[in-house]
Amino acid sequence: xxxxxxxxxxxxxxxxxxxxxxxxxxxxxxxxxxxxxxxxxxxxxxxxxxxxxxxxxxxxxxxxxxxxxxxxxxxxxxxxxxxxxxxxxxxxxxxxxxxxxxxxxxxxxxxxxxxxxxxxxxxxxxxxxxxxxxxxxxxxxxxxxxxxxxxxxxxxxxxxxxxxxxxxxxxxxxxxxxxxxxxxxxxxxxxxxxxxxxxxxxxxxxxxxxxxxxxxxxxxxxxxxxxxxxxxxxxxxxxxxxxxxxxxxxxxxxxxxxxxxxxxxxxxxxxxxxxxxxxxxxxxxxxxxxxxxxxxxxxxxxxxxxxxxxxxxxxxxxxxxxxxxxxxxxxx
Length: 332
Ligand code: AVJ
Description:
This protein is of the alpha/beta class and 332 residues long.
């Protein structure tokens, strides 16, 4: 496409990336309760499996959020009047188009910055957006929104978006510092639109993470393939079963992989030689569910205030519009 403007950079070199991953995996799997960081689901196969999840009948999140966003994008753009859109964890990136269209319609659209952990999905999204929005300047940063936010640069005329309830993958204790770091890359008057999955009927929540077709189970086990590919591990993914349940006390869905037998696994790049008992589990993800109150409670001190809370008619999912106040930065 001639004249299409886009560029993709990586936050870190591959060697640094690999060393960091080995350290994180080692820390997680030597902890008392074994765990793996959920960002490692998203290699190409995992990103594709997540795309499949978004189309499952039980997985109400994506279609609810998309429909909600279609109805409110104009209102958000009118409130914020951004010239630049930043998307964290953009994945295949369809939702962002609704905001870009509203910005273009308002005559504001200039730039767009995407950050995602998957280089292939990111490059493809950047290319497609540049092709479909003539004149739009698109930049992609391959990076991790928990550690690479400094690459976002300074704000001003900026609307940042974080869809899919990916914020739910952070422990609630990690959310206020995360929001404060995002706020550092926003100027007064800039805003952050955050997709939040809501507390609801437990059967409905659990069905969304235990689909009948078994796609979520395949997605969950894929993290072991990622460790095999990237760290030379020798996991047999079929020797682990998918477990997902709602923990009412923490208000989160927890996903685990449960060893089906006594087995030994080596992960050379992380210098690990592990034994798993039959029934022993690894936590692979938490997906926190909020109410307006529990989400608003995370904001004080973050530099962001709740400007507007949009929900669908069934109150399944919310988009929280947070604005950066003019009170200045957050002291850390
Ligand atoms: C896109 C990360 C928010 O937690 O619902 C889907 C990932 N995990 N099914 C979520 C996911 C299991 C999803 N997030």
